[in-house]
Structure formats: structure tokens, C-alpha cells
Amino acid sequence: AVFDRIDAVELKVKAYLCLLREEARAQARAVDDRIAAGEEVPPLAGIPVAVKDNICMLGVETTCASKILKGFVPPYDATVIERLKKEGVLFTGKTNMDEFAMGSSTENSGFFPTANPWDLERVPGGSSGGSAAAVAAGEAVMALGSDTGGSIRQPAAFCGVVGLKPTYGLVSRYGLVAFASSLDQIGPITRDVRDCALLLNAIAGHDPRDSTSVPYAVPDYTGFLVPDIKGWRIGIPREYVGEGIAPEVRAVLDRTVDLLAGLGATVGEISLPHTKYALPTYYLIAPAEASSNLARYDGVRYGLRVPAEDVISMYKKTRSAGFGAEVKRRIMLGTYALSAGYYDAYYLKALKVRTLIRRDFDAAFEKFDLLLSPTSPTPAFKMGEKIADPLAMYLSDICTLAVNLAGLPAISVPAGFAGNLPVGVQFIAPPFAEGRLLQAAYALE
Ligand code: GLN
């Protein structure tokens, strides 16, 4: 049924970079055989899942939507893929994204943009836009995305689906192509909160192959699917609802506050005073790490190579042809911030401010169980609207970036509409309180 749906709508939505039709059929037959043999199969057995194209899958081309990785076929599975294979999941294909996950609209894909299924002239958000659009359009039942500064939550909000960014260290990054290693996390994009809990159950947990993976005893997240948040204290950070938030987004947030109060929660205001530094801090740390991580694309080890007379010209020609404009911009910003003479003023300063941002959250969670905000300041914008203005594009993640800097978990849930466009709200929790996020989201659903 999912592949029929893909046949019907994919030409318009363009969520996928590649489809795994035959492989999925074989995986489906294998699950059928297990059931026929009387085996009790895991909850996700036979469920069609789409995978963002920065997650390595054995034998399947993985490009991060970059021309520089064209032709790269990983010789191994990411840990999340290995775990989902054990569950008996069917993989539908690899989804489109902003090149190397740098962007908020999927327009930075090195191949083609993806459309928002709710309005084909608008963006699905990004960078996990292909995954969110696939789930929203019924071209997959669930999907994996990755979130460095909002790339699961913002596209989930734009496409009217659920997206969860786990606590840093909960889900293994082994096999996730690195963008900014201290911020990246893989997480679920699903149609509802129950699916989100099920997919998180399958991917969370310690992995010795990722040195930042935390040895944490993962609970069964479906145990949190009880619609009861009576007495919970929910804080709205003042800085997240000020200037720049569209009135129709504000209206959805206000309605959500009423619903939460109706469910017996108390909602109050809180200040996170360092919020104004989140965007500049992120755009020093993320490009700094990216400039180091992307140094491996040299035309020798992976994907594209443009031949030239000597090795230095080969590097230059390969990188000039292989990287898109936004990726080049980030590499230059990051290299500058890390260079001798500027390191202390920019990168080191950003690390210090990152600590202050985390402390704001620590203080807030002494008073509140959860924080609530818009996921993004606006609903899905028109294709082409922000592509020529990087700063306008960066502002699309103003409500999500600080969460990654602080390593916290957060979820975006559909909470209403602006005209025919879905609007999401974001809950933020203390480290490893994913259960609390799911419980609040489930109560709202
Ligand atoms: N839009 C932000 C960026 O371009 C966040 C991307 C992400 O979370 N991968 O860096």
C-alpha cells in the first residue's frame, strides 16, 4: 500500500532520493515467514520506515544529498539501522535533505527540492524535509531524521507530523554522517505519539561504537502513553514568544495553553536570558565542527573525484564541483572561527556561552517539569522565499537551536492550523525525560 501511494504522489512530493522497493518486498516476505512459523514478531516488524540519506545502510548509496558523495555505498549499517533490521522493519528508501543537513527547507539538496504535501508550492522544512514529507504524504509509516539545530522538529511542524529530538547520547550516532558531532542526534518522525514511542524504543540505548553514547537504562516509552498531566508545571520561555513569531503561530500556542490548563497543568512564564545568543553561538560551533568533519571529502576516500594534474588541484576541483553554496559557506565560517588568532575570540567564546545557555535551562527545570514554545516562528514558507538570504533561513530555527546546544530532548507535535498549513508546538524536557515529552504530547493528542 505504501509503494502504491509512492507511485501516486512521489512525482509531486519528491521526498525520496532512492527507493528500496525490491528490498522491502524481500523484508516483508521474511516477516511473513516468521509469522507463519508461529514466531511472535517485535512491534515494528513489517512496518515501512523511510531513512534520511545521512544514515548509512549496508549496500545502499548514501549521499547526504551532496554531489560529493554521489556513488558512495557504505560497507556497514548504522547502529539504528542494525537495530531496526532486527525488529523486522521494511525500509522504503532514503529521503531527501538539505546537503549534509545544512538548511531548513530541503532546498539546499544537491539534487532537487522536496515539496510540502499540504501545499506543493511550499517547503517541507529541513533538513529532514524528505522524511517529514514522506510520513505526511503516506509514503512511509514512520521515518528517521537527524537534528543538529532543529532538523527533525521544524520539518515535523511544517508537515503536521510528530518529531522527537532525543537527549544527546540516547541514540547512537554510529553510522550517521557527521555534521556537528556535539549536536547531532537521530530521532523519529511519525504520524502520532504512539508511533514515536515505538520507534524511539527500537533505536535508543547504549552503543559502545559511539563514544558519546550514554549507558542509560532505557525505559519502555509506550508506558508513558497515559493522557494525564494533572498538576504538571509547564513554563513558557518569554524569549520564545516575542518578536518574530507569526500571529497565527501565537494563536495556536495560546490554544495549546488553554488545552493544557484544561487538563490540569499549571502554565507559567519563565525567562531564559541567554536565548539571544543561541543563534550566533550555534553558527560558530556547528560550522566549526562541520569544517573539521567535512575535511574527509577530499576526492580520495569517498564518492566524487574530479581528475586533475596534481593532488592539490584535484582537491580543489572535486570540492568546487561537489559541495553546494551553503556547505562552502559553513566550511569557510568554521575554518575562520577555528583559525589561530580567532579561536579564542569566536570558538572558545561560543563554548562558554553554550554553558550559560545550558544553565538557563537547568534553572528553568527547577521550577518547571516541561517548557513549551512554538516549534518554528512561522508555518511552512514558499519555495524560493528565503533561499537567497541565509540569515532569514537561519532564523527559522530560532526556537529549536538552543535545545541542541544544551543537549536536551524536545518534541514537536501538531497543535493546530494556520489556514490550510499545520502548526506545531515544541515541548522541551530535562535530559533523558523523553517519557515526559511523550506523555504531554499524548495528552494533547
Ligand atoms: N537549520 C539548521 C542548520 O542549517 C539546523 C540543521 C539541522 O538540525 N541539521 O544548521
UniProtKB/TrEMBL annotation:
Query: Gene3D superfamilies of this UniProt entry?
Result: Amidase signature (AS) domain (3.90.1300.10)
Reactions mediated catalytically: L-glutamyl-tRNA(Gln) + L-glutamine + ATP + H2O = L-glutaminyl-tRNA(Gln) + L-glutamate + ADP + phosphate + H(+)
What are the positions of the active site?
A: K52, S127, S151
**Which InterPro entries does the entry mention?**
Amidase, Amidase_CS, Amidase_dom, AS_sf, GatA
This entry's Gene Ontology molecular function terms read:
ATP binding; glutaminyl-tRNA synthase (glutamine-hydrolyzing) activity; transferase activity
Cited PROSITE patterns:
AMIDASES (PS00571)
One GO cellular component assignment for this chain's record is: glutamyl-tRNA(Gln) amidotransferase complex
What positions does the domain Amidase occupy? Answer: 1-438
Keyword Protease annotated:
no
Domain of life of the organism encoding this protein: Bacteria
Q: Which UniProt keywords are given for this protein, alphabetically ordered?
A: ATP-binding, Ligase, Nucleotide-binding, Protein biosynthesis, Transferase
Q: Which HAMAP family match?
A: GatA
How does it associate, per the subunit comment? Heterotrimer of A, B and C subunits.
Query: What family classification does the UniProt entry report for this protein?
Result: Belongs to the amidase family. GatA subfamily.
What is the recorded name of this protein? Glutamyl-tRNA(Gln) amidotransferase subunit A
